[in-house]
Design brief:
Layout: H1 5-34, H2 41-48, H3 52-58, H4 62-84, H5 90-100, H6 104-109, H7 111-115, H8 121-146, H9 150-174, H10 186-190, H11 194-206
Helix pairs in contact: 1-2, 4-5, 4-8, 5-11, 8-9, 9-11
Length: 216
């Protein structure tokens, strides 16, 4: 039986998406096992049970792979914020959810200096457009639940993302072995953990936009 061209294309598209998902899942497993530095294209191909030639049809470098993982993690963060945030819970949700999505914080910490700096323009621009769209969704949410003007909500969304990125970078330092850190400096290192620093920053950024009942 000869399938119509649109049926063939639909099957091909679904197969490609499934293969891409398998590659990303393989990369996640390798990061869990060996950390970011232990991930290689050869290891990803082996873990995903594909040839290196097939892998290169989807991503050309491990940084491009990390960028795809980050954008997927960011989509999860944004979807959860959209599902959970109200005028009462916005600050709490914004401060909590990013740390709960696997790989989001460590990938964000490496996003600009390590990942984006080593991704070719075409895939970089494609993923940046997706990120821009997600940022606009967060801005609309902030405007809708707080009643803030759209331009002010956009500024708040940008400030949250920039602050989140800085908090993610400090989180790397916070996770060092503290056994050799002097007692008087330990609180400073511990305070750099993302789960401590970003919720505080989110509260400061959003408190002027939200009802007083949401600030407590």
């Amino acid at each position: 039986m000869v399938l119509p061209a649109n049926r063939k294309r639909a099957r091909s598209d679904s197969e490609k998406e499934a293969r891409r998902g398998a590659i990303l899942d393989a990369a996640r497993r390798l990061i869990d096992q060996d950390g970011f530095d232990g991930v290689t294209m050869s290891a990803v191909a082996k873990e995903a049970a594909v040839s290196k030639g097939t892998l290169y049809l989807y991503v050309h470098t491990k940084e491009e792979l990390f960028l795809a993982l980050f954008v997927e993690a960011m989509e999860q963060v944004v979807c959860r914020i959209e599902a959970e945030a109200t005028s009462v819970t916005l600050i709490e949700v914004m401060g909590r959810v990013p740390a709960e999505v696997p790989l989001f914080v460590p990938l964000l910490a490496r996003l600009v200096a390590v990942i984006e700096a080593n991704v070719p323009d075409e895939p970089l621009f494609a993923e940046k457009r997706r990120m821009h769209t997600m940022g606009a969704r967060v801005a609309r949410l902030i405007s809708n639940v707080t009643g803030a003007p759209e331009d002010l909500a956009r500024d708040a969304s940008k400030a949250l993302m920039l602050t989140m990125q800085g908090a993610a970078q400090f989180d790397i330092a916070a996770r060092r072995d503290l056994s050799g850190v002097p007692d008087d400096l330990r609180p400073a290192f511990e305070g750099q953990e993302f789960s401590c620093s970003f919720p505080l920053a989110a509260r400061l950024i959003l408190s002027g936009l939200t009802p007083s009942s949401a600030v407590n």
